[in-house]
Amino acid sequence: MFNIIQARKIWLCLSGLLIVASVLALIFWGLRLGIDFTGGSLLEVEFLESRPASETIQAQLDELKLKTLQLQPTGEKGLLIRTTALSEEQHQLILEKIDSLFGEENTATVSEPTAGQTEKTVTVPASAIGLTGEGTENLSVDISGTNLEQLGLEGIGVSSASASRNFTELRFDSIGPTIGSELKRKSFYAIIVVLLAIILYIAYAFRKVSKPVESWVYGLSAIIALAHDIFIITGLYAIFGHFFDFQADALFVTALLTILGFSVHDTIVTFDRIRENLHRHQDETFMAVVNRSVNETIVRSLNTSLTTLFVLLSVYLFGGDSIKNFVLTLMLGLIIGTYSSIFIASPLLVIWNKLKKN
Q: Who is most buried in 8, 35, 60, 75, counting CB within 10 A?
């Protein structure tokens, strides 16, 4: 049997160092909030062939002099562009700037109507609508009156002269600062409500346990362990945001709530074993009972965490790039949550019991 509880000072000191490092990271670097909270625009495109170098795209878009501009490659050919809130005109300008990286190869021209004409004439190179082969290199095709969506050229209109076929616009989302502030406030409330609900549930579940510590102490210990998890994860995100441009968005809050649920579930299993052993081993000290209970559940906790970690690792390695940060947060939270359930929550019961005696 491992003397886990007896070595509680080591675990608490380690957690203390991690929390201090997290707080310092938040003070000096802060948490980089995504457009979900600050407001802004997100544009995702996928290139049909090779993706241009990020530096090349950055230099091209810098000409627009946007206040915030962040590029994130996704997959082999995708690109995420995060900026401040864009107007539709700016949105189209970005698409034109990206399109200009490929020269005039797939550009449409729009001619004003001449005498006797009632519509503008739209012509594109044959390659832009899939006509390739010998003799088509310099061929242009008049597509006036054609269903442009069927040709994949729906961007052409009387006010647009761009019809690039070198990339596809997958999505364009715009969030105003008011919505972002409201979402940030509601995310904070969601975390507080979850923590309060956990305290009430544990206090009710352990209502018949009054010795040697009261039922509400179990809930308080679990909440301290959960706060420990949140502080460290948030601090890590501040560090990753400073060095690797990680941003806290709605998925980050979702990951935090998931981590809270998993961590408290693991903690309750250990607490429930403590409750059982208090009746089975009444001749032992409270510290011995807690240590026995932790040793009896540690294998179960590690097995559950490892199997979940393997699944998350598979998703991280083979899943889409858009959820990698979310999955990484879950993996880190899983590790830290398992640690706090074993080495923080249960030792806190023993510490409270000692303080009560003193």
A: 35
Walk me through the domains of the chain, giving residue ranges and CATH numbers: 8-35+177-357 (1.20.1640.10), 38-174 (no CATH)
CA 91 to chain centre: 25
Residue closest to 110 by CA, chosen among 163, 161, 165, 153 = 161
- Cβ count within 10 A of residue 321: 13
Query: Helix 8-28 to helix 346-357 angle, to the nearest 10 degrees?
Result: 110
User: Closest Cα to residue 251, out of 326, 174, 334, 144?
Assistant: 326
Instruction: With CA atoms as reference, report the closest residue to 231 among 268, 190, 191, 193.
Output: 191
Per-residue pLDDT tens over the stretch 31-53? 888 777 777 888 888 888 888 88
pLDDT digits (tens, 9 = 90+) for 76-124: 888 888 888 888 888 888 888 888 887 654 444 445 555 555 555 555 5
What DSSP designation does 69 have?
Answer: E
On whether the CB atoms of residues 125 and 105 are closer than 8 A, the answer is yes
Amino acid identity for residue 69 in this structure: L
What's this model's pTM, rounded to 2 decimal places? 0.70
Let me know: does 44 contact 171? Beta carbons within 8 Å. yes
